[in-house]
Amino acid sequence: MVKYICLLISALLVGIGSFAQNKISPRLESVMIENKGKVVHAVFRLSEQWNTDSALALYSQQKITASQQAKQVLMSCEKFTKQKQQSFLQAIEDVKSSGAKIQKVYPFKTSNLITIWADELTIRTLASHKDVSYVYYDHADYKLLPSFKGETVDLKSRATSGIIAIQACKMWELGYTGRGRKALGVDTGVNTQHPSIAKRFLGYYAPLSESFYSYNNVTPVDIANSSHGTHTIATVLGRTAKNGDTIGVAYNAYYMVADPIVSITSEIRRMSEILECFEWALNPDGNPETTNDIPDVITNSWGLTNSYNAEDCDLPEMLVFNVLEAAGVAVVFSAGNDGPGAGTIGIPANIARSTTNIFSVGAADANNQTWPIASFSSRGPTNCPAEPGTPLHIKPEVVAPGVGVYSAQGLDGYGSLSGTSMSAPHVAGAVLLLKEAFPEVAGTEILMALYETCTDLGEVGEDNTFGRGMINVWAAFQYLSQSYTPADPLTGGDIQVSATALFEYIGNDTIISTNINIENIGMADVNIEKFDVSISNQQFVKDTSVTVTVGGVNNINLKLSIAELPQSVYYDINVYVKTATGSDIDTINNRTTISLTKPYFVSLPYTETFEDADFDLRGAKVIIRNPDNAFTWRSDTVPRFNGGMQSATMKFRFYTDLLQKDIMELFPIMVGNASELKLGFKYAYAIKSVFGKDSLYVLVSTDGINYNDTVLMKTGESLATVSGWHYSSLFVPDTPDKWRYANVDLSQFLQAENIWIRFETVNGYGNDLFIDDIAVFEGDDPLPVDNETISANTQQLILYPNPAKSVVNILFSHSVNKYNIRVFDLAGREVPVYFDLTSNKEIQVKLPHLRQGIYLVEVVYDNEVKTLRFIVN
Q: For 410, left (φ over 0), alpha (ψ -120 to 50), or beta?
């Protein structure tokens, strides 16, 4: 470090410091002054950038197809950027070797931008590099645009008023429904299991890495209470499963997901982090030779209130959006909800580089026959450099329905929301309809067609309220048909593939049994030629000759011994069903991917610190069971007092539905000849509010099937490890005093050969729960326990006999004075029982005339509540 500081002082003495200061944005300069000694977040723009304008002019002259254009852009700009970054990246390595503190370096591949999070000295030193033209503050300002609850809509026609207003139904009548096209929703995530969009998520048919850019969760889940991301993507392409009514514009298209947008201030992503998913969108499969993995349109319903600062127009975001424009990807942004004042257009919707970059959308009321502008819809003009009165100066570009828009919400519900957030998805859906008709026309040209053919509203011509007016996808189709021949609508057979897999045990052999379900959702029979299944990169092909009739469902079961596979705990199974050429109009949904975890038996002591776990807890000796397919257990990085950095986490604060359950199950444990048996673990939790209280249960099974014994239950105050409510703040247990230790006596299971242990959580709208350092052992806990900061020895209950007939006994590990007992059946009905205290540690519960079945006994004692399960036979 001394060497590094000396180098910097030397540089400043020769005047480089003042030169570098001229390259640093005023806001970044201010942040560095206010945060002396702390990590500063910056984005460096290098002087030479790939020339998107020249590329667009060249492609226009060459008249190449959209797919050729995308391929050329990706290969050309990546090659250029890699070459131009070499000198600066070497400079970063040099300052690192001199002792610089650098937290993050992220070189963008398609734009000559490099994210650097480092101390002030490092930022100033690197800013003086000859290749640096400017250094931006990497702000954390972009957030979810507010949406407003709309009136309840009774959908009595096959389409919403918004879909009717933009003339999408006329495209459907021609047969264009967006089939085979893709949209990327950059939002709060999506509840992919919602019935209106469940079968349109690309991740069900392609690897998750090609369909989901994850910031918050292992799989896509909507983290907004309003289901903002679910609502917007369903407006693009949703269709109600109940009656076939359509809430989405292009209901046969597919969607991809990125989830960087949040509403909690403490969790807002930095600008550079959000831009990473846009760069990913240019090459989701990592292969620059392919282009069918690129989304046709990216819909965005987020942004920032305009501060009328000159810096708001010179944004690094522009460089990323420029490459997307050159690649032919349509990028659509909500205009913002800061109207009705003039000049309220949001950021980055205010960018005025070209008509289609960025394509901003205001909100009109399609439930009113005159389509009036919504009062909240942000108005133009832009504050960015553009000749007053010209199309670039006028904002927004267009309007679309954004008042009382009916779409998907929650896991299976529907509701109406208002906001320009609801308008942008209508435009995205229109792009998908037109891309099916004109697959080799660039998305930016399709946006231009929508712009040119709007239904004029408000003042005659383009204005700063309605832009060019309400989009009209039918008119845009006719406009494009003057220059291009529309492709025939895709009609015919269409199989949709799903699969399940499980382990079967035949003698000493373990079999992976994969059941493939093939449903023909098209309008003609489909001929299948081959089943191609790969498991852990081992390929197995089965030729066949099967015809799936219209509306028919075929099943095939494939069995493979794991002896033929590389030995592993995790098995990824990829299924592809090859159809005869021309018999299947959509081959995207001919694929699916599933995973299996094969746990092994662990001898005592069992320990798990989660330090080797991936984001989805792969690498830890646990199995995650997620019955509602929503949020579930994942790993999280939390600085720990024992030197560890990772814990298992249950993100309760992201849940929107009450009482959702999630299970983290330990690998089975061999009890052996142990003379005592204990479970120890550390946990941290904060109550969110008087109503936001979650629960944790620890259950034990002796057969891996029936979990009849609850050995620990904590809820609300008894689970909390810190005092007070954490309603709006993110709970981070980064100090020892925020953790507690649970020591559970498992001696009642000493006679079992093996035990299975589950950590089961029940959502109660609370804050996050952290679990770490799990151990099952005899004697002393093999993992460190700090008794000065962690409370130990939770009161334990043992219930016996179980199963029971007329009497059960509850044995306490410590003396108990006040108590109460209640018994319930599984329907929640209380049943009458009698109980007596036979000693200060044991209660006998009499069960007169109870039918055979499973019951729950609630034990209230010493300000604790525990629930145990037992069987009557």
A: left
